[in-house]
Amino acid sequence: MATVFSQYAWLVPAFPLAAFAILTALGRSLSRTGAWIATVASLASFVYSVMIAAERLAKNAEDYIGGFAWLRAGSVNLTAGYEVTNLTALMLVVVTLVALLVNLYSLGYMKDDERISTFFSYVALFTASMLGLVLADNLMILYVCWELVGVCSFLLIGFWYRKPEARAAAKKAFIVTRIGDLGLLIAILLLFWYMPGHALDFASLHNVFYAQSGIISTSITTLIALLIFLGAVGKSGQFPLHVWLPDAMEGPTPISALIHAATMVAAGVFLVVRTFDIFAAAPAALDTVAVVGAFTAIFAATIGLAQNDIKRILAYSTVSQLGYMMLAVGAGSTTSAMFHLFTHAFFKALLFLGAGSVIHAVHTQDIREMGGLGSRMKITAWTFGIGALALSGIPPFSGFWSKDAVLTAALDDNPWLFAVGVVAAFLTALYMARLFFLVFAGKPRGDAGAHARAKESPAVMTAPLIVLAALAVVAGFVQTPFSGWLGSWLTGGAEEEHASGLAIVASVAASLLGLYLGWLIYSKGAVRRDAVSSRFPRLVRLAERKYYIDELYDALFVKSLRGLGKALSAFDDVVVDGAVRLAGRSALALGRLNTRLQNGQIQTYGLAALVAAVVLVLAIAGRRFW
Amino acid sequence: MLGSYLTLAAVLFCIGLYGVLVKRNAIIVLLSIELMLNAVNLNLIAFSKYGVVPSLTGQVFSLFTMTVAAAEAAVGIAVLIALYRNRATVNVDEYDELRR
């Protein structure tokens, strides 16, 4: 089948980019209309992505690479191009779909915000750059989009810049991810240096690292892979750079759903999958990915268990699930990583949008002040429940299939990783049960008046919830242990059927146990809530305070850097600025003196000339005596 | 012999220079300029008589210089009269047109 639609794949990011340009150019005069322009643009992108994906569903669809020469310096050619493969087509659909739904949802959520058109223009720019990142055919373009995405994230986290927390969170996100970005940049430079012909496109990377491995030594390959992984760690919020993601929840909730749950944070996983050939050539790096992923999965889950802010719980859950994806990549199964990314995008966006709906209704984010909302907000409660079940990995919801795929991959790789994954699955189910029962079940706590006023959100907000809930139910069936359709489509290989009875039983058992325990504690009250915290107060406190990671970083890096900054600033003030001021002042003084001389009287000028002549003569004559 | 003529010329020149730089009256300034010119004439003549290569040319030159000096003095006086008509003063301190 011809690649009719794929040829014009650049249109997909072009629509939101055009929307961004229009919104920026016309700005405030549009207000409400601007939001619709952005939504229509994202709809166009989505429709076109679906057409591309439909085209690619045909058997043996050929990858399409297009683009133009961007830079030519000596023997080096840089192209700016796009590449349509099954992997990118899948990502296109996921990103545009979530972006479309978030746009729709924001029409309701951001209705009363006076900077609504600014908000939508940022979202459009984000969508465009994320799509560009997905489509990029070489690392250079990917890096440009990668940074653009980071900028949009910064802008949107700090969207309510009047809140000091939002400003701090935006800065934190930007700076922390920058550490990772630097790693990625160094990796790209190393690749540029070592690759034959300085090629940076993915096709050449595949050739060098997969087909003719051995051109680049293993140690360099490992270094490059680790640096790329550092970039992914920053963007995807893996330990130890996870600290920015929970703070990023200061941004508007639709943004948390779009950027910090479904798309941008998945960019790290996508990057590792895209450059998987490099990782495959460096087993040590691959093991690192798996271990960091597994550790992050369980580490973030324990923190999520002790948080009280509805969005923060979901944020730690995101960190934990991204850890799962990394674990899958590290275990060598890019398919299950992409599969989990795919399903996670839907149910996590659903959960965030549901959380936004709740916040919209009760105007608080503290789950201790909620409760009993299930009867007032039926649609939100049902869809949120579906999302929670999907996240917990209960069959037949999508999360079950993808989590099972990840765990099967982990079991093949290393039983310890599998064990960690199962424990993380148990914790996931437990904190989701806690969240769900505290928010929607039981009696209202906190401000009674606010609860009485709480009502279901408008249709423009609930419709995306319903669509996402439907997807969260069915998205898992593209890849089940009985038919590896997604895997064979993505990798082009034969259908693999990785049925592992142990993985299925263990993950379902862990999830059900977690849910049951959560129900016992938080709904039925059969187990006292403080049963654990009274016995191990230290431990709970540790998780509540996020293992003091923030404080540790503050003491280790922030304080010392700030001290260094102060010293440097003092040096700048006194020495550098002092020298500049001295030069300026002396010139000024000389000028003043000359103004005095410049009095228009010929005699003064004559005197000056005479003095100068005498000095000259003395100087010339005096040279003899030196 | 040459030394004493040169010394005399230098003394004359310095007196003229002093007058140019210090005197308030524009007429005196002009006179002082003449004094400096004459110091130069004296030098020319002294060199033409007692120099390394004595020649009559130097004395001829001094005649030319005197002629030019006369012309210069005439122009100077003319400028001065024009200035006086404008500003009604011959005080050099008040001539600060160059500042404009």
UniProtKB/TrEMBL annotation, chain A:
Residues 136-428 form the NADH:quinone oxidoreductase/Mrp antiporter transmembrane domain. It is found in: Cell membrane; Membrane. InterPro entries: NADHpl_OxRdtase_5_subgr, ND/Mrp_TM, NU5C-like, Proton_antipo_N. It is a multi-pass membrane protein. It holds the Pfam family Proton_antipo_M. The chain crosses the membrane at residues 6-26, 33-54, 87-107, 119-135, 141-161, 173-195, 215-234, 255-276, 288-306, 313-331, 337-359, 379-397, 417-441, 462-482, 502-522, 602-621. GO terms for biological process: ATP synthesis coupled electron transport; electron transport coupled proton transport. Residues 70-120 form the NADH-Ubiquinone oxidoreductase (complex I) chain 5 N-terminal domain. GO terms for molecular function: NADH dehydrogenase (ubiquinone) activity; NADH dehydrogenase activity. GO terms for cellular component: plasma membrane. NCBIfam families: NDH_I_L, PRK06590.1. This is NADH-quinone oxidoreductase subunit L.
TrEMBL record, chain B:
One of its GO terms (biological process) is ATP synthesis coupled electron transport. It comes from the Bacteria. GO terms for molecular function: NADH dehydrogenase (quinone) (non-electrogenic) activity; quinone binding. Keywords: Cell membrane, Membrane, NAD, Oxidoreductase, Quinone, Translocase, Transmembrane, Transmembrane helix, Transport. InterPro entries: NADH_UbQ_OxRdtase_chain4L/K (IPR001133), NUOK/Mnh_C1-like (IPR039428). It is a multi-pass membrane protein. Its EC number is 7.1.1.-. It catalyses: a quinone + NADH + 5 H(+)(in) = a quinol + NAD(+) + 4 H(+)(out). Its main location: membrane. It is found in: Cell membrane; Membrane. Belongs to the complex I subunit 4L family. NDH-1 is composed of 14 different subunits. Subunits NuoA, H, J, K, L, M, N constitute the membrane sector of the complex. PANTHER family: NADH-UBIQUINONE OXIDOREDUCTASE CHAIN 4L, NADH-UBIQUINONE OXIDOREDUCTASE SUBUNIT ND4L. This is NADH-quinone oxidoreductase subunit K. The lineage of its organism: Bacteria, Bacillati, Bacillota, Bacilli, Bacillales.
